[in-house]
Amino acid sequence: MTASGSAIAGETSQEAMGRELFEELGIRHDFRYDPPLLTVTENGCFDDIYLFKADCDLDRLVLQAEEVQEVSWADADGIKRMVVDGSFIPYPASFIDCFFITPGMGRTLKA
């Protein structure tokens, strides 16, 4: 699952991620001590990408209708198929693979 958005003035990246995750999916998680899995920089902007593990029943999520069309479980190949058919954010295959490695130290990618 993914949740995305932008920080409000004065918010940390972790606070913004927690707020967006709750707004879009109804999941509460405190990211205060979670570093981003990776940070992508492009054109003077950056995106922090977080990954965390949690037990989650998709039927119990509270979806923000204006932002979320559908939720489902998918492996790396499934996400890549969704990219091809246009139903997922058009990330490069190598970027998608980053979500399925064991999280370690933060990484920085330059687009």
UniProtKB/TrEMBL annotation:
Lineage of origin: Bacteria, Bacillati, Actinomycetota, Actinomycetes, Bifidobacteriales
Q: Which SUPFAM superfamilies match?
A: Nudix
Gene3D superfamilies linked: Nucleoside Triphosphate Pyrophosphohydrolase
The coiled-coil regions, if any, are none
Which keywords does UniProt give here?
A: Hydrolase
What's the source species for this entry? Parascardovia denticolens DSM 10105 = JCM 12538
Q: Which GO terms describe its molecular function?
A: hydrolase activity
Q: What is this protein called?
A: Nudix hydrolase domain-containing protein
Could you tell me which PROSITE patterns the record lists for this protein?
Answer: NUDIX, NUDIX_BOX
- Domain Nudix hydrolase per the UniProt entry, residue ranges: 1-96
